């Protein structure tokens, strides 16, 4: 093997190792929790999904990862619903919905798609990050899912969500379903994507440059969030 071929191979290997490290860094729960804490401490609201997503796209770019925004509708089900869905699948009948409600079943919807009048100066949707890298599963990072936290409904969510998704979810034809355990019992998350929806781009939170990037073990070098 010639010297040039060997150098090219070494560069490709170094590139793969660099991207693997970047992926591990970016999808670290500890890292994401710190980013979320910094954003909230800056004065942002709990439902600051656009701000969170823009910050993550900037951090991803600094790590040379492909991170892009994705509009979703997210439904979070508490234990009675989650247990039923795990056994029977989605879409219980009206009768079953009533029975589950009587048994304490509750759910929260973020970014509901039904026709409704949005609150003044508030975008009526939910925005997450889609992370892609060669050799890695296509992954959703929902940094602001904790806005669905409802302890009185036995929905306890205090950390970001990170999960792999199928291709039909990304193109908007399928959904992504996940389960997690809590002290109150299992919780079920159902995500549906709307890849053609770019309405978030008019938001000041999306237009703002946060100057966010990762470096030398410090999650964010500079993060300035303007508050109203």
Describe the model.
Strands 1, 2, 3, 4, 5, 6 and 7 form a 7-stranded antiparallel sheet that branches. The longest helix is centred in the N-terminal third of the chain and has 24 residues, at 3-26. The protein is built from 7 helices and 7 strands, in the order αααβααββββαββα. The chain has one domain (3-207). The protein is globular. It has helices at residues 3-26, 29-41, 49-62, 79-88, 94-102, 167-170, 204-207; strands at residues 66-77, 107-110, 126-132, 139-142, 161-164, 175-182, 185-193. The model is unreliable at 216-228 (pLDDT under 50). By secondary structure, it is an alpha+beta fold.
In short:
With 228 residues, the chain is α+β, with helices and mostly antiparallel strands.
> Considering DSSP H and I runs of 4 or more, what fraction of the residues is helical?
25-40%
Mean of all residue-level pLDDT scores: 84
The tally of beta strands, per DSSP, is 7
CA radius of gyration: 20 Å
**Domain tally:** 1
State the separation between the terminal residues, measured CA to CA: 62 Å
SS element count, helices:
7
Q: For the report, how would you describe the main beta sheet?
A: 7 strands, antiparallel
Unreliable runs, pLDDT <50, ≥5 residues? 216-228
Write down the overall geometry.
Answer: globular
Structure classification: alpha+beta
Beta-sheet strand percentage? 15-25%
Order of secondary-structure elements? HHHEHHEEEEHEEH
């Amino acid at each position: 093997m010639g010297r040039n071929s060997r150098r090219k191979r070494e560069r490709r290997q170094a590139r793969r190792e660099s991207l693997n490290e970047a992926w591990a860094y970016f999808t670290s729960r500890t890292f994401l929790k710190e980013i979320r804490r910094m954003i909230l401490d800056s004065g942002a609201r709990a439902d600051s999904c656009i701000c969170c997503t823009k910050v993550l796209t900037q951090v991803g770019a600094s790590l040379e990862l492909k991170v892009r925004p994705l509009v979703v509708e997210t439904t979070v089900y508490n234990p009675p619903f989650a247990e039923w869905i795990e056994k029977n699948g989605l879409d219980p009948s009206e009768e079953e919905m009533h029975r589950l409600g009587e048994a304490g079943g509750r759910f929260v919807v973020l970014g509901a798609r039904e026709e409704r009048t949005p609150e003044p100066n508030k975008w009526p949707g939910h925005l997450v990050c889609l992370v892609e890298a060669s050799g890695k599963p296509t992954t959703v990072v929902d940094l602001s899912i904790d806005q669905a936290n409802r302890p009185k409904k036995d929905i306890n969510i205090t950390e970001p969500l990170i999960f792999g998704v199928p291709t039909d979810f990304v193109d908007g034809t399928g959904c992504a379903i996940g389960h997690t355990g809590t002290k109150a019992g299992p919780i079920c998350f159902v995500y549906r994507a709307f890849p053609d929806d770019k309405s978030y781009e008019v938001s000041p939170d999306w237009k703002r440059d946060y100057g966010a990037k990762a470096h030398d073990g410090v999650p964010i070098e500079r993060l300035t969030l303007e508050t109203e």
